[in-house]
Design goal:
44% of the residues lie in helices and 16% in strands. It is globular, with a radius of gyration of 17 Å. The chain has one domain: Homocysteine-binding-like domain (TIM Barrel, Alpha-Beta Barrel). With 295 residues, the chain is an alpha/beta fold.
Length: 295
């Protein structure tokens, strides 16, 4: 029997749990600085599978893919652009194996690193890059595309349209916001949460939200703004384990699983429908969040 859509499952009012950080997990398994994480889907698939399995075992209802930097533009840094489809399909296939038939695979699509404003790339070129990635992720078994860590509305909309017009994947689109000195939330390109949300909904996103950049405390404020402006759209949050600190030359995320779990119910009350983690989070964080939100 086919899995129901994520948006259909959310209509019951239940909060769903997503997974946590992938990059730091892979580094613990031996990924070296400067090495292509996505190539592990080909060269070290068992290690990638273990990451996905660990999050499923921790209680996640859905798991991402090792494809955040899987666009042809990002892969070009490693001279792998000609293997874009192969790598993305493998990434989705691995997470599909971990997820089985009763969990969702939300395939990660990150920014290309190219700037429309400086004319490094055209809108059409971005669309084509995202199309290639999305088609391959669907072929590998993904249920949804998780377009994430976006800062530019135009790039985000190009990704949303490429997924919508070329696949049957559900579409999640999240932005990364920073708090300004004036106390407002803006992306690196100056976009506020409500404007970002409205733009990608118009482009065809099914689920919106925020990831990275902030711990749960600040995510509560961001979600509140989005929910005030739209009462119906499902909202996903992948929060960091607190704000990063530099300790003896190392970046450390200070919040423990218990710290994040204590704040998760407030995030749900603010309007988040799907809660997971980003930088600094582990399967232990996801397990604690689930236990605090799902009673």
């Amino acid at each position: 029997m086919a899995r129901q859509k994520i948006t259909e499952a959310l209509k019951t009012g239940k909060v769903l749990i997503s997974d946590g950080a992938w990059g730091t997990f892979l580094h613990k398994k031996g990924l070296k600085p400067g090495e292509c994480p996505e190539l592990w889907c080909i060269d070290r698939p068992s290690d990638v599978l273990d990451v996905a399995k660990c999050y499923i075992e921790a209680g996640a209802d859905m798991v991402e893919t090792d494809s955040f930097g899987g666009s042809c533009y990002k892969l070009a840094h490693y001279k792998l652009e000609n293997r874009t489809a192969e790598i993305n399909e493998a990434a989705a296939r691995i997470s599909r194996q971990a997820a089985g038939d009763d969990h969702w695979v939300i395939a990660s699509i990150g920014p290309t690193g190219k700037m429309l404003v400086t004319e490094e790339v055209t809108q059409f070129e971005l669309y084509e890059a995202f199309k290639t990635q999305a088609v391959a992720l669907e072929k590998g078994g993904a249920d949804a595309a998780c377009i994430e860590t976006m800062s530019d509305i135009e790039e985000a909309c190009a990704a949303v349209k490429a997924v919508k017009e070329n696949t049957n994947l559900e579409i999640i689109c999240t932005f990364t916001f920073e708090k300004t000195l004036q106390g407002e939330y803006r992306t690196m390109m100056g976009v506020d949460p409500v404007s970002a949300m409205n733009a990608v909904i118009e482009a065809g996103a099914d689920i919106v939200g925020a990831n990275c950049g902030n711990g749960i405390e600040r995510m509560i404020e961001i979600v509140s703004q989005m929910r005030c402006a739209n009462k119906d759209i499902p909202i996903l949050v992948h929060a960091n384990a607190g704000l990063p600190k530099n300790v003896d030359g190392r970046v450390v995320f200070p919040q423990t699983p218990q710290d994040m779990a204590a704040l998760a119910p407030e995030l749900a009350a603010a309007g988040a429908n799907i809660i997971g983690g980003c930088c600094g989070t582990t399967p232990e964080h996801i397990k604690a969040i689930k236990e605090s939100v799902i009673k």
